[in-house]
Amino acid sequence: MKRPGCRLPARRSFAAGALTAALLLLWLPLAAHADNNSGGFVIRTAYTELLNGVYYLSADVDLNMNANALNALENGVPLTVEWQIEVIHPRLLLWNQKIATLTERYQISYHPLTQRFVIKNLNSGEQQSFGSYRDAILNLGQVNDLPVIDASLLQPHTRYMIRMRAVLDITDFPGPLKLIASLFKGWDLSSDWYAWVLAS
Q1: Which end of the chain is more exposed for a tag (fewer CB within 10 A), N or C?
Q2: What pLDDT, in 10s, does the model give residues 155-165?
Q3: Number of domains observed in the structure of the chain
Q4: What residues contact 141, with CB distance under 8 A and at least 6 apart?
Q5: Phi-psi bin for 157: left (phi > 0), alpha (psi -120 to 50), beta?
Q6: Are 50 and 173 in contact (CB under 8 A)?
């Protein structure tokens, strides 16, 4: 006696098929650009200033998205960029002591109906809208007067270093795309650490 096969309900079957089709449409351009993924993050300059007892950071970062990231953005996937910042007390005979860490997160998304690019500060909720991708990404790469640490938390007459890097965070991607991004090259966009002395 032939046993009946297991069938998905019609709605679930349609949803699964639509998701698979959408992923294929997204994956095909990604595969086409697999060997042509120019892009990378570079911190050009970064420095801190002590104002009213607080250290503020400013930086100029080139955020060159590669073909994979741009294709995802154009297909409605928001991209999250992180500024990862660490204050360190360097020690000669021991491991360096990490005094403080700060992660500032921004999301860039494309809205096809308005043809606008929106940058949202995920820490504060503030957002800005831009008419072109170039204007949006240039704005995102400018870090101005970001508060990092209160000087009262640091010991006087002690040498401290601060370092920063820019990272494309894929953890917020939709499940299937997150899996693709974690398995294939071309998604690990991050700058080198840029370090300098935290001058008083």
Answers
A1: N
A2: 988 999 999 99
A3: 1
A4: 60, 61, 62, 63
A5: left
A6: no
